[in-house]
Design goal:
By secondary structure, the protein is mainly β. It has 5 helices and 38 strands.
Length: 710
């Protein structure tokens, strides 16, 4: 990757300007995942009079972002391919592999011809006018225009060694977004005898987003040489759309402090959205916070000066969210492109719900800010509790309605935890060598408080019917249910691997074996019989973790000596579990995965072998690893706890004596390494995966940069 930028700025008492140009070229990890970006940023400010300033800004970006249709499939194909697969055939051409679904990834990528282009332009003009001393008005008007063009073309390809597929599927699309926005803010600031300090703000905002789009697809082009839609002999589909959304709001905020000792802030928002139900388009969102700088009290002066500074603060606020709401779900959506009995018709596709309203999150927070030894050590502590109500939730409907579900505001979720931040300047400020450290950690505990009424215990949705040893009875666990967490994972616990046929014959009957003969042999898995009924079935699944992390954080060490500086940043996550699917595929050889991992070398081979790796079956016929009947081996539910060496930066600036000689204001070099190493026991591509190793991996990068200021 390359990233270049240059900027020029200047001006005087009446006018100022800034112009920046940038170019980025990132080749990506996978072939054809190139990203190129040219950007322009221009700012200008003119002082019209003593009371009025006018400013303008132009931001423009042109991007080429070529992506193949399925990045996940490309990496999965590479991971589960047999190690003996050929990359090239004897004639030098790329080998197609077993079939296209599990092809040589180089070959698969070579069949695509993608293109994505975008232009993003924002124009902004605003002003700041002083009406009377202390009272200012700041209006601002902006317009954003974005256009996107995309096409994809798949050349003729071999599906396996001999089958040539000439469908040559092609697609193309064009879209345009227009977003005007207007804001205005009145601000009044007053200080009475430098004791009572007041600041009041009031304003409004108006935002529109208009989208238009056209798309089409075709197939059966006569040649690979023309990738555009005009070469498709068979038109497949055509589509068009126009959407509109409006957001408007009024807001105010008042701040007061007495001798900067007692602090009070209050805010109020009144926001509306066009895609909410007609009865509930507007919502009211208040907030308040208070603070007390205890170190400013007279009784605190008895302590040594600058020994400790202490502030206590608390806040409570309500915020709104409609990110899970489509543009026309409240009003209902219709499909007008279907034929019925040969005639065009209109069919309702989404049930309307005019009662949809804002999700509301009510958050309370209490915290401490502590500074020690003239702020050489700083400590921040926060405890928070957030309850989100009126959750935009899909409610299942009975089949008699003709619809599977409807979107409602039903349910509530609680998140609570703490956040701690510590920073320290190890050496005194007079020292030529400086060392600063910073550390932070945060926890989150989630609990489902309310779900739509469905007549089931805890209003459960989904879940696993298993034996619960705590109750001594069968029960539904996991899924979504009141009092539970989101993201609980269940699977089958591997106790051991049977060493002999005789030992296997004494074990429980495994009803999940995907064949009529349920006999087990030496080398098969001994699954935990949770309910002790000598039968392994779906009720024997156990809790194996949760997909959401409970603890996150990081720490930074910064060193500097004269013109040299070194920064080391690390971060960590704890508490999450993921199903390591690629490990299971390459151990169990299922669903077309012909790759075999090294664990097979220590698998069960003969009667009497003691190992934790069961014998190898072709296509996992015994369901050792695979998800037959939702089978998931506990060995592959892995913790994704990690400590990442996220960034190391070494910088050097030329000394002033050299800069003056060449009449340069500043000249700095830096070398940065990013995503350098993960300390983790997770065996997959990256412990930061949230799915089963099908996502684009996090790249390790080395960045060399220089900046010069004239």
């Amino acid at each position: 990757s390359q990233n270049h930028s240059v900027s020029v700025s200047g001006g005087g008492n009446k006018a100022k300007f800034y112009l920046g140009l940038g170019y980025q070229d990132n080749q990506g990890i996978a072939i054809q995942t190139d990203y190129k970006r040219f950007s322009l940023n221009f700012n200008g400010e003119v002082k019209v009079s003593d009371n009025v300033n006018v400013f303008a800004r132009v931001m423009y970006a042109n991007t080429n972002n070529d992506q193949v249709s399925s990045i996940g499939n490309i990496f999965k194909s590479a991971l589960i391919a047999p190690t003996y697969n050929k990359l090239y055939l004897e004639d030098g051409s790329l080998s197609p592999g077993r079939n296209f679904g599990y092809a040589n990834p180089f070959y698969q990528l070579s069949t695509y011809n993608p293109r994505r282009r975008a232009n993003d332009l924002t124009l902004l003009v605003g002003s700041e006018a002083t009406i009377i001393p202390g009272l200012t008005f700041s209006p601002q008007l902006s317009l954003r225009q974005v256009s996107n063009y995309a096409r994809n073309f798949q050349r003729a390809y071999l599906n396996g060694p001999t089958t040539l597929v000439t469908s040559r599927n092609a697609s193309g699309s064009f879209s345009e977004l227009s977003s005007p926005q207007v804001t205005g803010v009145l601000t009044y600031i007053k200080s009475l005898n430098n004791v009572h300090n007041i600041e009041v703000k009031a304003g409004f905002s108006y935002f529109e987003e208009n989208n238009t789009g056209l798309s089409a697809s075709g197939s059966n082009a006569a040649t690979d040489l023309i990738p555009t839609l005009n070469a498709s002999a068979t038109p497949v589909s055509v589509s068009g759309s126009e959407t509109h959304q409006t957001l408007a709001g009024y807001f105010s905020r008042a701040s007061y402090n007495y001798k900067r000792k007692y602090l009070v802030n209050a805010s109020l928002r009144y926001d509306g959205a066009s895609n909410l139900g007609s009865k509930n388009k507007w919502g009211v969102f208040p907030g308040v916070s208070v603070g007390w700088n205890i170190d400013r009290e007279n009784f605190w002066k008895a302590l040594p000066e600058d020994l400790i500074k202490l502030k206590i603060r608390a806040s409570y606020g309500v915020t709104g969210n409609i990110s899970g709401l489509g543009l026309y779900q409240a009003q209902g959506a219709y499909n007008a492109s279907s034929l019925y009995a040969g005639n065009a018709g209109i069919q309702i596709s989404t049930l309307p719900n005019q009662d949809l309203r804002w999700e509301q999150s009510k958050t309370g927070d209490i915290g401490l800010d502590v500074g020690l030894f003239n702020n050489r050590i700083g400590i921040l502590f926060d405890y928070y509790k957030r309850v989100t109500s009126n959750l935009l939730t899909t409610l299942t409907l009975p089949p008699s309605t003709g619809f599977s579900s409807i979107l409602t505001n039903y349910g509530s979720l609680q998140n609570k935890g703490y956040e701690i931040e510590l920073n320290a300047r190890i050496l005194p400020s007079k020292s030529a060598f400086q060392w600063n450290i910073a550390f932070n950690t945060a926890t989150v505990n989630s609990k489902i408080l309310k779900l739509p009424e469905n007549g089931i215990e805890n209003n459960r949705v989904g879940g696993e019917y298993v034996y619960d040893p705590k109750r001594g009875a069968y029960a539904y666990l996991g899924g979504l249910q009141e009092g539970g967490r989101i993201g609980d994972l269940f699977g089958y616990q591997q106790v051991s691997v049977y060493a002999t046929d005789e030992e296997a014959a004494k074990g429980p009957v495994d009803m999940l074996i995907p064949r009529t003969n349920k006999t087990k042999y030496g080398g098969d898995v001994n699954w935990l019989d949770v309910d002790k009924n000598d039968t392994i079935d779906t009720r024997d699944r156990v809790y194996l973790g949760n997909s959401l992390p409970r603890i996150t954080g990081g720490f930074t060490n910064s060193f500097s000596y004269k013109s040299i500086s070194l920064s080391i940043r690390m971060d960590y996550t704890m508490g999450a579990t993921i199903y390591y699917e690629n490990g299971a595929r390459t151990s169990g050889n299922f669903s077309g995965a012909n790759g075999i991992n090294a664990d097979i070398l220590r698998s069960w081979q003969k009667q009497g072998d003691k190992t934790d790796i069961p014998r190898y079956y072709w296509a996992d016929q015994n369901g050792q690893w695979n998800v037959w009947n939702n089978r998931g081996n506990s060995r592959f539910y892995e913790k994704t706890d990690f400590l990442c060496l996220r960034e190391v930066t070494l910088a050097y600036g030329l000394p002033q004596s050299v800069l003056k000689r060449f009449k340069i204001a500043d000249f700095r070099f830096h070398l940065t390494g990013a995503n350098l190493y993960y300390f983790t026991n997770y065996d997959g591509l990256s412990p930061e995966q949230t799915d089963t190793d099908a996502a684009y991996p996090n790249p390790r990068s080395i960045i060399l940069g220089a900046s010069i200021t004239f």
